[in-house]
Amino acid sequence: VEHRPNARLAMAIQSSQVDGAATVARAADDAHYSEDFITFENHAITRKAAAIRLDTVADLQGRSLVAWQQAYRDLGPTFEALFNPGVTAPYIKKYQELASQRSQNLMFWSKRVEVIVVDRTIFKWYRTELAKEVDTRDEVEFHDIFPARTTYWVAFRDAAIRDDFNAGLRSLRKTGRYQRIYEQYTQAAPD
Asked: pTM score, two decimals?
């Protein structure tokens, strides 16, 4: 198992560096994609004490914010129009995309950004993990401003490996094991 930034996952499959890459978006390429693997519920999250009002994606302009690498591709057309790499408006200087979700969460809890854009479950998990290093007790607010959940797949070089993976994934879901694994990472984390 290797961890690579999102931007390098597709290249790793195409160049035959790996047999599979998890948590990727479907693309028009030669990869063999699994059944949907995981869905993220993304939010803009702020500290409640900051009293930041975010009713739409456009309200993020001018706020210091951090998201995952290539988030602009995943969060709908308005977010992409406002935060893609080609944007030159002054507010874009306050926007960062980082490959490490740990680093994203650490920035938020260290008060280096006002807003973190992240999946609710990932945020909760890092909140618990980072509590050993920084104060994560501040009350937070989840702003539901993104149009839909984001679904990801696993890309494989070989269709047979993909088929085996799909069979295993179906079995995990059917037996309830998939849900138990998911809950193992989310149950203890506070909102």
From this structure: 0.78
Reference 6, options 66, 68, 86, 77; nearest CA is: 68
Per-residue pLDDT of the chain (191 residues; tens, 9 = 90+): 555 555 556 566 566 677 788 877 777 778 899 998 888 899 999 999 999 999 999 999 999 999 998 899 889 999 999 999 999 999 999 999 998 999 999 999 999 999 999 999 899 989 999 999 999 999 999 999 997 787 888 999 899 999 999 999 999 999 999 989 888 766 655 55
Is the backbone of residue 146 left (phi > 0), alpha (psi -120 to 50) or beta?
beta
